[in-house]
Amino acid sequence: MTIDQMKYFVTAAKCLNFTKAAEILFITQPALSRQIANIEQELNMQLFVRTNRQVRLTPPAEILLEKFEKLYNDYNIAVADAQNSFQGLSGELSVGVLEGAYLGDLFPGVLKYFDEYYPNVKINLRTYSFNKLINKLYENELDIIFTLLFDLKSREMLKYKVIEKTCDHIVVHKDHRLAQAKFVKLSDFKDDTLIIVSEEDSEESARLIIDACKKEGFTPKVRFASSLSELMLWVEAGVGVCILDTRNSLYGNSAVKFLDVAPLSDPSMTMAWNEAHYNPMKKVFIENFVPSVETENSSK
User: Fold this and answer.
1) Are 124 and 93 spatial neighbours (Cβ–Cβ below 8 Å)?
2) pLDDT tens digit string along 23-38?
3) pTM to 2 decimals?
4) CA distance 10 to 34
5) DSSP percent split of the chain into helix, strand, coil, nearest 5
6) What is the C-alpha to C-alpha distance for residues 86 and 281, in angstroms, rounded to an integer?
Protein backbone atom coordinates (compact mmCIF):
# COMPACT_ATOMS: atom_id res chain seq x y z
CA MET A 1 0.00 0.00 0.00
CA THR A 2 1.30 3.45 -0.94
CA ILE A 3 1.21 6.59 1.17
CA ASP A 4 -1.39 8.03 -1.20
CA GLN A 5 -3.60 4.95 -0.76
CA MET A 6 -3.27 5.29 3.01
CA LYS A 7 -4.40 8.92 2.67
CA TYR A 8 -7.38 7.88 0.53
CA PHE A 9 -8.48 5.25 3.04
CA VAL A 10 -8.09 7.53 6.09
CA THR A 11 -10.00 10.38 4.43
CA ALA A 12 -12.84 8.13 3.26
CA ALA A 13 -13.02 6.38 6.64
CA LYS A 14 -13.27 9.67 8.52
CA CYS A 15 -15.82 11.21 6.15
CA LEU A 16 -17.92 8.07 5.63
CA ASN A 17 -19.01 9.78 2.41
CA PHE A 18 -17.12 8.96 -0.79
CA THR A 19 -18.31 12.05 -2.65
CA LYS A 20 -17.19 14.41 0.12
CA ALA A 21 -13.92 12.49 0.58
CA ALA A 22 -13.20 12.71 -3.15
CA GLU A 23 -13.68 16.49 -3.06
CA ILE A 24 -11.23 16.80 -0.15
CA LEU A 25 -8.71 14.64 -2.04
CA PHE A 26 -9.20 16.52 -5.33
CA ILE A 27 -10.04 13.34 -7.22
CA THR A 28 -13.27 12.02 -8.70
CA GLN A 29 -15.61 9.81 -6.72
CA PRO A 30 -15.16 6.85 -9.15
CA ALA A 31 -11.36 7.20 -8.85
CA LEU A 32 -11.64 7.04 -5.06
CA SER A 33 -13.92 4.00 -5.27
CA ARG A 34 -11.35 2.26 -7.48
CA GLN A 35 -8.55 3.04 -5.00
CA ILE A 36 -10.58 1.67 -2.09
CA ALA A 37 -11.35 -1.46 -4.09
CA ASN A 38 -7.64 -1.92 -4.83
CA ILE A 39 -6.81 -1.57 -1.14
CA GLU A 40 -9.47 -4.12 -0.16
CA GLN A 41 -8.13 -6.50 -2.79
CA GLU A 42 -4.53 -6.05 -1.59
CA LEU A 43 -5.47 -6.59 2.06
CA ASN A 44 -8.00 -9.29 1.20
CA MET A 45 -10.63 -7.84 3.49
CA GLN A 46 -13.74 -5.70 3.23
CA LEU A 47 -13.27 -2.23 4.70
CA PHE A 48 -16.53 -0.43 3.94
CA VAL A 49 -20.18 -1.47 3.97
CA ARG A 50 -22.03 0.76 1.52
CA THR A 51 -25.82 1.04 1.24
CA ASN A 52 -28.06 3.56 -0.48
CA ARG A 53 -28.31 5.56 2.73
CA GLN A 54 -24.92 5.27 4.45
CA VAL A 55 -21.32 4.12 4.48
CA ARG A 56 -19.94 2.44 7.57
CA LEU A 57 -16.67 0.82 8.52
CA THR A 58 -16.17 -2.87 9.09
CA PRO A 59 -14.50 -3.90 12.38
CA PRO A 60 -11.07 -4.46 10.71
CA ALA A 61 -11.37 -1.04 9.01
CA GLU A 62 -11.87 0.63 12.41
CA ILE A 63 -8.59 -0.91 13.56
CA LEU A 64 -6.81 0.20 10.40
CA LEU A 65 -8.16 3.75 10.71
CA GLU A 66 -6.66 4.18 14.17
CA LYS A 67 -3.27 2.80 13.12
CA PHE A 68 -3.09 4.32 9.63
CA GLU A 69 -4.07 7.80 10.84
CA LYS A 70 -1.12 7.79 13.25
CA LEU A 71 1.23 6.40 10.59
CA TYR A 72 0.15 9.01 8.05
CA ASN A 73 0.55 11.86 10.55
CA ASP A 74 4.00 10.59 11.59
CA TYR A 75 4.98 10.38 7.92
CA ASN A 76 3.93 13.99 7.27
CA ILE A 77 5.76 15.24 10.36
CA ALA A 78 8.93 13.36 9.38
CA VAL A 79 8.86 14.77 5.84
CA ALA A 80 8.25 18.30 7.13
CA ASP A 81 11.14 18.01 9.60
CA ALA A 82 13.44 16.70 6.87
CA GLN A 83 12.45 19.49 4.47
CA ASN A 84 12.99 22.13 7.14
CA SER A 85 16.40 20.68 7.93
CA PHE A 86 17.35 20.58 4.24
CA GLN A 87 16.27 24.20 3.81
CA GLY A 88 18.25 25.19 6.89
CA LEU A 89 15.21 26.08 9.00
CA SER A 90 15.90 23.54 11.71
CA GLY A 91 18.27 20.74 12.63
CA GLU A 92 21.50 20.48 14.57
CA LEU A 93 25.11 21.46 14.11
CA SER A 94 27.74 19.82 16.29
CA VAL A 95 30.95 21.79 16.82
CA GLY A 96 34.00 20.36 18.57
CA VAL A 97 36.68 22.49 20.22
CA LEU A 98 40.13 21.34 21.30
CA GLU A 99 40.02 21.05 25.07
CA GLY A 100 41.95 23.79 26.80
CA ALA A 101 41.55 26.19 23.88
CA TYR A 102 40.08 29.60 24.64
CA LEU A 103 37.74 30.58 21.79
CA GLY A 104 35.07 32.46 23.70
CA ASP A 105 35.90 35.73 21.94
CA LEU A 106 35.60 34.17 18.48
CA PHE A 107 32.12 32.65 18.68
CA PRO A 108 29.69 35.49 19.55
CA GLY A 109 29.35 36.72 15.95
CA VAL A 110 28.38 33.42 14.38
CA LEU A 111 26.18 32.38 17.32
CA LYS A 112 24.32 35.70 17.13
CA TYR A 113 23.85 35.16 13.39
CA PHE A 114 22.30 31.73 13.95
CA ASP A 115 20.13 33.04 16.76
CA GLU A 116 18.76 35.74 14.45
CA TYR A 117 18.38 33.88 11.16
CA TYR A 118 18.21 30.19 12.15
CA PRO A 119 16.62 30.16 15.62
CA ASN A 120 15.46 26.54 15.22
CA VAL A 121 18.96 25.22 14.58
CA LYS A 122 20.46 23.70 17.71
CA ILE A 123 24.22 24.23 17.98
CA ASN A 124 26.03 21.71 20.16
CA LEU A 125 29.46 22.72 21.48
CA ARG A 126 31.73 19.94 22.74
CA THR A 127 35.38 19.77 23.86
CA TYR A 128 37.75 16.88 23.23
CA SER A 129 41.48 16.28 23.07
CA PHE A 130 43.31 15.81 19.76
CA ASN A 131 42.46 12.33 18.49
CA LYS A 132 38.92 12.22 19.85
CA LEU A 133 38.20 15.46 18.05
CA ILE A 134 39.50 14.09 14.73
CA ASN A 135 37.83 10.70 15.13
CA LYS A 136 34.44 12.23 15.89
CA LEU A 137 34.78 14.42 12.80
CA TYR A 138 35.49 11.38 10.62
CA GLU A 139 32.64 9.45 12.24
CA ASN A 140 30.20 12.32 11.54
CA GLU A 141 29.53 12.90 15.24
CA LEU A 142 30.95 16.40 14.76
CA ASP A 143 30.33 18.68 11.79
CA ILE A 144 33.11 21.20 12.42
CA ILE A 145 36.13 21.17 14.72
CA PHE A 146 38.60 23.75 16.01
CA THR A 147 42.08 22.40 16.58
CA LEU A 148 45.76 23.16 15.89
CA LEU A 149 47.05 23.25 12.35
CA PHE A 150 49.94 20.80 12.81
CA ASP A 151 47.46 18.07 13.75
CA LEU A 152 45.52 18.49 10.47
CA LYS A 153 48.09 18.72 7.69
CA SER A 154 48.57 14.96 7.22
CA ARG A 155 44.87 14.06 7.60
CA GLU A 156 42.97 12.76 4.60
CA MET A 157 39.63 14.05 3.32
CA LEU A 158 39.55 17.14 5.54
CA LYS A 159 39.20 20.78 4.54
CA TYR A 160 40.41 23.52 6.85
CA LYS A 161 40.79 27.25 7.35
CA VAL A 162 43.29 28.95 9.64
CA ILE A 163 41.34 31.42 11.75
CA GLU A 164 44.22 32.83 13.81
CA LYS A 165 47.99 32.55 13.63
CA THR A 166 49.38 31.49 17.00
CA CYS A 167 52.81 30.45 18.22
CA ASP A 168 54.40 28.00 20.63
CA HIS A 169 55.48 28.86 24.17
CA ILE A 170 57.22 26.86 26.82
CA VAL A 171 54.95 26.94 29.86
CA VAL A 172 56.42 26.72 33.35
CA HIS A 173 55.14 27.13 36.89
CA LYS A 174 55.49 30.69 38.24
CA ASP A 175 58.13 29.49 40.72
CA HIS A 176 60.29 27.83 38.03
CA ARG A 177 63.89 29.04 37.91
CA LEU A 178 63.34 30.50 34.41
CA ALA A 179 59.89 31.95 35.01
CA GLN A 180 61.13 35.53 34.53
CA ALA A 181 63.16 34.84 31.38
CA LYS A 182 62.17 36.82 28.27
CA PHE A 183 63.28 34.21 25.74
CA VAL A 184 64.32 30.60 26.21
CA LYS A 185 65.60 27.63 24.21
CA LEU A 186 64.39 24.05 24.48
CA SER A 187 67.84 23.01 25.63
CA ASP A 188 67.39 25.22 28.71
CA PHE A 189 64.98 22.55 29.95
CA LYS A 190 67.04 19.44 29.29
CA ASP A 191 67.03 18.65 33.01
CA ASP A 192 63.29 19.30 33.45
CA THR A 193 60.46 16.85 33.01
CA LEU A 194 58.73 17.66 29.75
CA ILE A 195 55.03 16.85 29.82
CA ILE A 196 53.66 15.77 26.43
CA VAL A 197 50.31 14.41 25.35
CA SER A 198 50.62 10.71 24.60
CA GLU A 199 51.05 9.38 21.07
CA GLU A 200 47.63 7.78 21.44
CA ASP A 201 46.16 11.26 21.79
CA SER A 202 48.34 13.03 19.22
CA GLU A 203 51.12 11.19 17.47
CA GLU A 204 52.08 14.36 15.58
CA SER A 205 52.40 16.55 18.69
CA ALA A 206 54.63 14.05 20.50
CA ARG A 207 56.80 13.55 17.42
CA LEU A 208 57.28 17.27 16.77
CA ILE A 209 58.33 18.02 20.35
CA ILE A 210 60.72 15.07 20.77
CA ASP A 211 62.32 15.73 17.35
CA ALA A 212 62.81 19.42 18.28
CA CYS A 213 64.59 18.39 21.50
CA LYS A 214 66.88 16.01 19.64
CA LYS A 215 67.80 18.77 17.19
CA GLU A 216 68.96 20.81 20.17
CA GLY A 217 71.16 17.94 21.27
CA PHE A 218 69.28 16.20 24.07
CA THR A 219 66.71 13.52 24.70
CA PRO A 220 64.02 14.91 27.00
CA LYS A 221 62.81 13.37 30.21
CA VAL A 222 59.19 12.85 29.28
CA ARG A 223 56.00 12.39 31.24
CA PHE A 224 53.08 11.48 29.00
CA ALA A 225 49.60 12.83 29.70
CA SER A 226 46.51 11.10 28.36
CA SER A 227 44.94 14.40 27.28
CA LEU A 228 45.51 18.12 27.11
CA SER A 229 43.47 18.62 30.27
CA GLU A 230 45.76 16.29 32.21
CA LEU A 231 48.84 17.98 30.77
CA MET A 232 47.58 21.40 31.84
CA LEU A 233 46.90 20.17 35.38
CA TRP A 234 50.43 18.79 35.76
CA VAL A 235 52.04 22.04 34.62
CA GLU A 236 49.75 24.19 36.75
CA ALA A 237 50.77 22.04 39.72
CA GLY A 238 54.47 22.62 38.95
CA VAL A 239 55.24 18.97 38.17
CA GLY A 240 56.95 19.75 34.85
CA VAL A 241 57.03 22.05 31.84
CA CYS A 242 55.15 21.81 28.55
CA ILE A 243 54.65 23.48 25.18
CA LEU A 244 51.34 25.24 24.51
CA ASP A 245 50.07 27.84 22.07
CA THR A 246 48.77 31.31 22.85
CA ARG A 247 45.13 30.20 22.46
CA ASN A 248 45.42 27.83 25.42
CA SER A 249 43.25 28.83 28.37
CA LEU A 250 46.25 28.74 30.73
CA TYR A 251 47.57 31.84 28.95
CA GLY A 252 47.21 34.62 31.49
CA ASN A 253 46.81 32.19 34.41
CA SER A 254 48.82 33.61 37.30
CA ALA A 255 50.03 30.14 38.34
CA VAL A 256 52.11 29.69 35.17
CA LYS A 257 54.32 31.64 32.79
CA PHE A 258 54.29 31.44 28.97
CA LEU A 259 57.87 31.89 27.77
CA ASP A 260 58.84 32.86 24.22
CA VAL A 261 60.72 30.21 22.26
CA ALA A 262 61.78 29.68 18.64
CA PRO A 263 58.96 28.10 16.56
CA LEU A 264 58.68 24.34 16.98
CA SER A 265 55.59 23.82 14.80
CA ASP A 266 52.60 25.74 13.46
CA PRO A 267 49.96 25.59 16.19
CA SER A 268 47.64 28.10 14.49
CA MET A 269 44.00 27.78 15.53
CA THR A 270 42.19 26.12 12.63
CA MET A 271 38.61 25.28 11.71
CA ALA A 272 38.21 21.94 9.90
CA TRP A 273 35.40 19.87 8.43
CA ASN A 274 34.82 16.74 6.38
CA GLU A 275 33.14 17.57 3.07
CA ALA A 276 32.04 13.95 2.64
CA HIS A 277 29.44 14.48 5.39
CA TYR A 278 26.46 16.64 4.47
CA ASN A 279 24.86 19.16 6.78
CA PRO A 280 23.34 22.30 5.20
CA MET A 281 24.17 24.32 8.32
CA LYS A 282 27.88 23.56 8.05
CA LYS A 283 28.32 25.89 5.08
CA VAL A 284 26.33 28.62 6.82
CA PHE A 285 28.54 28.38 9.92
CA ILE A 286 31.78 28.44 7.94
CA GLU A 287 30.72 31.39 5.79
CA ASN A 288 29.57 33.44 8.78
CA PHE A 289 32.44 32.73 11.14
CA VAL A 290 33.75 36.27 11.44
CA PRO A 291 37.54 36.04 12.12
CA SER A 292 39.58 36.81 9.01
CA VAL A 293 40.77 33.74 7.14
CA GLU A 294 44.47 33.68 6.45
CA THR A 295 44.82 30.28 4.84
CA GLU A 296 42.57 27.77 3.14
CA ASN A 297 43.74 24.32 2.17
CA SER A 298 42.92 20.66 2.15
CA SER A 299 44.89 17.66 3.17
CA LYS A 300 46.26 15.30 0.59
Assistant:
1) yes
2) 988 899 999 999 999 9
3) 0.73
4) 15
5) 40, 25, 35
6) 9
